[in-house]
Give the backbone structure.
Amino acid sequence: MIKAENLNKTYVMNKKVKVKALDDISFTIKEGSTIAIVGPSGSGKSTMLNILGGLDTEYKGSLLVDGKDIKDYDTNYYRRNIVGTIFQQFNLVSSLTVAENILLPITFGKQLGKGRVNDRLEYLLGKLGLKERADHKPTELSGGQSQRVAIARALIAKPKIILADEPTGNLDSKTGGEIVDLLFELNKEEGTTLIIVTHDPELFNNVDRKIHLRDGKIIQE
Amino acid sequence: MFKYALSIVLRRKMRTFLTSLGITIAVFLISFIIFGMQDLQKLLVDQFNTILKPNQIIVTKGGAFSMFTGVGEQTYDQEEQKQTIMNEDVLNEIRAFEYVEDISRMTVITGMNITLIDKKVPYPQAFMSGWDVKSNNSYFKEFSGNVERVEPGKIWVSKAFSKFYKLNDPNDIIGMKVAIEPSSSSILTNRSKSIIGKKFEYTITGVYDPGQDKNDAILHVEDSTSMLADLGGFKSSNEYIKEIGYDNLYVTTYTDNVKEFKKYVKDTYNYDTFTADDVISILGSITQGLTIALVMFGLVSALVAGIGIINTMIMSIYEQTKEIGIIKAIGASNTQVLTIFLIQSGFIGLFGGVFGLLLIFAVMKLTDPLIVDQLNNAGFGATTFFNFDITIALVITALSILVGVVAGVYPAIKAAKLDPIKALRYE
């Protein structure tokens, strides 16, 4: 379970200009649920994602994951073991193969035992239809394939939470639809909590819950 | 992680190659100096070890070798250090000394022309000695002639001398006569009435190769002293020995007593001594000093190469900013990012080092026969010159990696400190 209480984040641009990105936000997300965070640009979506991803630790208020404040986790441990992130632009490492890209989080964290790494990789490659592409470089992949690699990379270490930042934003609607189906399917199978920042109606219409943000405040749930 | 770091370096092969070229040049320079100096020293040491065995000592009145053995700074008010004349009494005393196995006398004669009889042109700049040496002495690299010692009235000449007269087969020159006359042109000659018209004749009974030494003819000691007495206006060679003495003594001691003997002659007669070990240690310190000085130049190029690596790595941070953001977002710690960058810069150093060593290895292999040829023409008995020392090569490789890693420290810290949110936004 994720529990946010009175989250506040202010960007100080200079002495006179301060931007309140998150204004006293509180919410609770059940384990295994799917959440869409929607809102116009500048509403605080990215800030929220950065805080949830453990990238931004300069905020006020508390954010508990499984009853523990994320500030009490070791930052690297939290990023490696608790969350998996999917980016809009896929963000694959061009010099590594598909398999190596998927295994990158394991490279830094050794989250899985040696014997389990290969099984997990094989499972994800099969599940995401990437078996034939395991030894290909990202430049040889289509947009949809690239995003599937990114999904596999986010899932490899069996995180509790998947954060997806506009996962279909760079894809055509058909491919985007396939990715949406995959994300929901995997969410069910793996039991992860899926938090998606999106403008895509296909995505936010299928989630368990939507959080609408505007000017750093939740205006509608 | 290592594989990942390596994949980044190999992404820009040309840039990695060009950056590591700096290290290659530095390694090439430094190893050329180190290997070259080491091999030069080895060659000279080998050469001296064949001329003088460890228990063979040249005892000298000083002067010629004092530049090597080191005479302290002197001032006029210092008491003159008295040196005993090397006369028969001294000779007998030293011969009787318990550590001495064998002793032979030496005189040095310069400023004389030696001419093969019937030839018009004298052998130039001759350097002769009177020496009761045996023909099987290790001093001679080669000896031809059926005699054990040079007898009175006879002379041994060097290979260089016989070659000068185009008599390459020693048998052709053995039995011929030479005439020795004071040189009219030598700067070493004191123009004196007493030497005008003096001429000495000897028969050749041996031809020898003195290796690197300049020694064109060897006479019987008594012949040399009577020649010196005659030229110097002494009544007899006995008077010459009494007043002037021999120039050097060539002493063989029992193997373990070299030090004691050296101390004895220094304390008793104030003579300088010199052994192969002395020369080798002097050569050692000269080549060492030279090596250090030259390696300094090499290090300057290593410094420049290091700056090149710093530059490349900083550029690489700009290129990889977004990627650093990604790997941080998926769990790479600051230390891991730092390590990835240090592996990259260390690899550039390693690549440059190995490439430099391969280059020097190739150059050594290719030029070795040419250098050996040149050395043998100059009288060295060399079969190889360059020796590729694996230990040194490994040390140089390790140092190349170190230069890379040290140069990578600043960019690596810069990369590790990147804020992942800003880095992810970077385009």
Q: What stands out?
A: The two ends of chain B are 24 Å apart (CA to CA). The first strand of chain B starts at residue 56 and ends at 60.
